[in-house]
Amino acid sequence: MPNLGVKYGLTLRRRYLSVWNRLKKKRACPKCGSTHFRRLVIGVWECEKCGYKVAGDAYDLVQE
Ligand SMILES: [Zn+2]
Predict the structure, then answer these.
(1) What spacing in Å lies between the alpha carbon of 53 and ligand 1's midpoint?
(2) How far is residue 29's CA from residue 32's CA, in Å, rounded to a whole number?
């Protein structure tokens, strides 16, 4: 976890950690369950096993 220093407020730090954790979290393919589910480009996730693609924004919301 990166050290953000004391100059950042608690609110900003919380917001940053939320994004950080979201990006780090392992994803499982909703179709086949494979964890080889990666972000293809910003906003699009793809399963390397079955080729399933999903819009990341919507998927992110489901995960929270
Ligand atoms: Zn899959």
Answers:
(1) 8
(2) 6
Going from the Cα of 17 to the center of ligand 1, the distance in angstroms, rounded, reads 28
Distance 43 CA to ligand 1 centre (A): 17
Distance CA 10, CA 17 (A): 10
For the chain, give the longest Cα–Cα distance: 45
Residue 21 Cα to ligand 1 middle (Å): 22
Residue recorded with tokens 């399963």: 47
pLDDT tens, residue by residue, 30-50: 899 998 988 888 778 899 999
Q: For the chain, list the domains and their CATH numbers.
A: 10-63 (2.20.25.30)
